[in-house]
């Protein structure tokens, strides 16, 4: 189930960032570390590692989900790593999966009450998925607007549902998620439809810029030649030359 959510979130991030390569944080519990007593230790053992995925729109959904699962397994082998090991935490979102831990009757230590949690992340956008299918998006209000987060949640839900179409390609899923016209909205927010961000807005190149500098500053130095041999004098050429 975590891989399903990770695959869906990858699709959404790819659509929102207009990039085939995305990275987000994934939360690892640390309870399966090769350390004696890790499962019974009181206190957090969690670690956040970067989850990087490169999407291939022509891949079918089944292969895509398998690749996400394999990547999750690979990360679990290094979940005790620290940033100095090369895993930088340069991501804006993180995804966590909660599980209901039901203690066995023969365990020596029993919980004194039902479990609960309160999330105060320092990450701009934190997605928490629970064992019963509930999804919570925790975000920093100084960075995001609630209406935009609600739209993001809608697309996340759509990606989760569409990933059940095993015969489709990843590209089909991405097209289905953005059928509500949100793609145009994102392009507008990204200033992609503006004339100033299109190739047609480029009116000058190196040649025209050089000619302009020649007209405006004919005596300014355009090229300065410094010889390797010290006793040979250096020389320069102005734009007028």
From TrEMBL:
Name of a matching Pfam family: Condensation
Keyword Oxidoreductase: no
GO cellular component: cytoplasm
Gene3D superfamilies reported in the protein's UniProt record: Nonribosomal peptide synthetase, condensation domain
Domain of life: Eukaryota
Keywords of the record: Ligase, Phosphopantetheine, Phosphoprotein
Example of a GO biological process term: amino acid activation for nonribosomal peptide biosynthetic process
Residue ranges of coiled coil: none
Molecular function via GO: ligase activity; phosphopantetheine binding
Domain Condensation, chain residue ranges per copy: 6-74
UniProt family annotation: Belongs to the NRP synthetase family.
Protein name: Condensation domain-containing protein
